[in-house]
Design a protein that fits this description.
Length: 480
């Protein structure tokens, strides 16, 4: 299928992520790919071990976790005031602030800003917010080509692919696959890969470095996201591991940052907590190699900040679901999730895969499609995601709440009403139990209709001949 996700014909649209098929169908296809399962198991297992090791070094990890939760909750309660404070600080520092209520408005703002420079090419720091709104596609429609500069995003772009992980978008690729992508497609986007390129990691990194350096030195407009924004000073913060982001943030003459409104922190002191939580939870490092910070417009550069809502205020109004806005995009929940490890990120049909995506995406997009209604069920509810979340998002609780909202069929409502009527009176329940015991031989091995989905992977429990209630009565309380 030809589309325009990453700025050139033949790439896959992130907007097309919201397809017609639900998670069960997507996952069923993914688990049949043995290479994918091997790649995911190896990568997530390695990250899990590294995270566990560095987290165990801190005796106050649980205290830091609760501090992160408290800071985020406090910020979300007073988000309106802190956003105004941020706008004033950025403006005072020479930057320009733009407010975008949805994806369409954000895309119009960014496209207009790029057009005003007269440029037709932009470089990008890895940004999930711009993927969420389909910015690259909008830029392409305006005649502007966006070049991804994060190494993993570059692999995804060259491979005409979708990101599969929050932190490591190309986690589903192994190094031999990456070599093939570089050899076949790198020349289409700029400097070609060496003819003698091997799948040695150092050689692949060098090929990417030479390819990207050429782009950094010739492009005058950059687009970034941000991990955090500091309200008291108007400072934006990006954490990364490669240094490509810093090149992107400093060399271009115009910098446009698109950031979700929930990425706000009130003070510099609050940032200290998250600079400990995020690297350990994401890459399993004590601190990230590159932390870039900028406040307003720096010398020789024009700065624009686009504050993105796109459903976030609706999530904020939800008493149960709003905790998803604490997320700092560390991906720890993906790396421990048994469902993600087998199905991969593409099965979620969203920019945000894994457990956090299963609660964040349906809230941001609504439950208007089969895919979005199915995402809250993409979990075993084992609770591992909650245990590793550095800001203590109770993902299982939100999943259960969203499941209840997704179950709105007439047949299901009628069934639950009937069950409620039976359980309301003990006499009714006793009669139903006796009837079930008499008819136990007639129960099929596979339940009919929609109930068949349950018995596809489970046996129908055997119905006892006599209920516990009747046994207790007959034996006079078990003969006491």
């Amino acid at each position: 299928m030809t589309s325009t996700f990453l700025g050139m014909p033949g790439t896959v649209s992130m907007m097309g992520y919201s397809g017609k098929e639900g998670f069960p169908d997507n996952a069923a296809k993914a688990v049949r790919n043995s290479q994918l399962r091997f790649n995911l198991r190896k990568a997530t297992g390695t990250i899990r071990e590294r995270r566990a090791s560095v987290v165990a070094e801190l005796p106050d990890w649980q205290g830091l976790r609760q501090a992160g939760k408290a800071i985020k909750d406090h910020t979300l309660r007073d988000l309106d005031a802190y956003l105004v404070q941020l706008e004033e600080a950025v403006t005072e520092a020479g930057g320009h602030v733009h407010w975008a209520r949805d994806a369409a408005e954000a895309n119009r703002i960014v496209t207009g800003l790029v057009k005003a420079t007269g440029e037709t090419q932009v470089v990008k720091v890895k940004s999930m917010a711009t993927q969420e709104i389909g910015l690259n596609e909008a830029l392409h429609d305006a005649g502007i080509t966006a070049y991804e500069t994060d190494l993993a995003e570059l692999i995804v772009q060259l491979g005409d692919d979708w990101p599969s992980h929050i932190l490591v978008p190309a986690i589903h690729r192994n190094r031999s696959e990456i070599r093939e992508i570089f050899v076949r497609h790198m020349a289409e986007w700029g400097r070609p890969a060496p003819e003698t390129l091997t799948d040695d990691p150092a050689a692949l990194a060098e090929a990417a470095r030479l390819h990207l350096r050429e782009r950094f030195l010739s492009t005058k407009v950059a687009i970034s996201g941000a991990n955090f924004m500091i309200a008291e000073t108007g400072t934006l913060v990006v954490l990364e591991s490669e240094g490509n982001g810093r090149m992107c943030l400093t060399l271009p003459e115009t910098l446009i940052s698109v950031v979700g409104i929930e990425k706000l922190l009130p003070t510099w002191r609050d940032l200290e907590v998250f600079l400990q939580l995020l690297p350990r939870s994401s890459t399993g490092e004590r601190m990230n190699p590159y932390t870039s910070m900028w406040t307003g417009a720096t010398e020789g550069q024009e700065f624009h900040l686009v504050l993105l809502d796109n459903g976030r205020t609706d999530v904020l109004a939800d008493k149960v679901g709003r905790q998803a806005l604490r997320c700092i995009r560390c991906s720890a929940c993906l790396n421990v999730c048994p469902v993600y490890e087998r199905a991969g990120g593409h099965a979620y049909g969203s920019v945000y895969p894994g457990p956090i995506g299963a609660i964040l995406t349906p809230q941001l997009r609504g439950m208007g499609t089969e895919l979005d209604r199915s995402l809250p069920f993409a979990s075993s509810l084992c609770g591992a995601c909650y245990e590793v979340c550095p800001v203590a998002i109770d993902i299982p609780t939100v999943l259960v709440e969203l499941r209840a909202r997704a179950r709105h069929g007439v047949a299901e409502r009628a069934g639950m009403a009937a069950a409620g009527w039976v359980f309301k009176r003990s006499g009714r329940l006793a009669r139903a139990q006796r009837m079930g015991g008499r008819m136990r031989r007639l129960v099929p091995k596979r339940l009919p209709g929609p109930l068949g989905g349950w018995t596809d992977t489970r046996d129908v429990p055997a119905i006892p001949k006599e209920s516990f209630r009747d046994w207790w009565t007959r034996t006079d309380g078990g003969n006491r």
